[in-house]
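for the writeup, i need someone to sanity check this before i put it in the appendix. the sequnce is what the collaborator sent (i think, or maybe the updated version? ugh). structure was predicted straight from it, no edits. if anything looks off just tell me and ill rerun, i have time this weekend
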Amino acid sequence: MKQSMYRRCIILTLVAYGLALPGGLRAQAPSPPPALPPVAAGVTTITPVDGMMPVVDPSNLYSEMRAGRVASTAATALQRVYVPNVRSNDVYVIDPTIFKVVDHFKVGTNPQHAVPSYDLQTIWIANNAEGRTTGSLTPVDPKTGKPGTPVAVDDPYNMYFSPDGRSAIVVAEALKRLDFRDPHTMKLQFSLPTPQCAGINHADFSIDGRFAIFTCEFDGVLAKIDLVNRKVSGYLKLSKRGMPQDIRISPDGKLFFVADMMADGVFVVDGDSFTEVGFIHTGVGTHGLYPSRDGKKLYISNRGSNKIHGARKGKGSVSVLDFATRKLEATWPIPGGGSPDMGNVSADGKLLWLSGRFDDVVYAIDTTSGEVKTIPVGAEPHGLTVWPQPGRYSLGHTGNMR
């Protein structure tokens, strides 16, 4: 009896850390450590939605995406940057250790974003086939860097995952709809119409996983989605006439920062009350938002144009915001002009990788100095991802890690 209980405890411990099991099996789920650190005095504990992993540090929900915390389920992936090119209908693959393109392959029509799966096992390329009915998701195996068989889905402009990991959320932008699908097979579970959200595209999730806020590019509003009751709980019209793009939550989970490419800055929104509480001017065509690996800074890409299809060599730059003070620490212009768009931070936090949307290049930006390396890619690169990244699970987009 004692030997049986001892064996069971050993197996549970190995599963929790994703290590080899007896018989040569291997745990697949990126589970958190079994014991959480004590909560600091004065910090409110978080009760996550059913099925969601615990919040390790309520004062910094980005604590598990710090440098050096790549999950065992992602550790065997090739170090690569996956770049979907909207107009050339392909993906360029960059080796970030040598800053060179090492592969490229065709995918579906109008690939928009490279999306790491919730379980960190797949990079999904979202091909929304804009204006057509031939949308698809192309799975890429990050261990080999090679694509698999596409899955037909309606209008996948972007994709996220519910915090409990039970659903992929395909953002059907043109249809004003969120399609909740099986995260592996992509079989439709249910759809949620968002009729007052034209251009629904980017999102982030509350610290407890109970709601998400999506941006509505063509209505200048935000949509709050109740994930527990599966409904739109409200819309928020922003004070400046604009085009909201990317959105990211603050480390303490209280505020959401919303990039707006027409307002040339970032709106600050209280998530619980769903009210606008501030605005920070950054640069021309504010577009993408990426937390630093320590969760203290927010890198903000300014695309250099207020137009959906801008000119080459625009007034592109990257702004660096201090989360705690909400003050800009620096602004790094792209030398000679450019169009920094979407991407993410390297696993070690030393480089910010961004697509140069109107210049057919990718930028690798030093997060200390702002120095820029430029790599030519296909036609109109968009939502690239760098992989692997630290974190226990992915909420989608180009790597919204937790």
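Residues 1-41 have pLDDT under 50 and may be disordered. Residues 80-387 form a domain with the Methylamine Dehydrogenase; Chain H fold (CATH 2.130.10.10).
thx in advance!!
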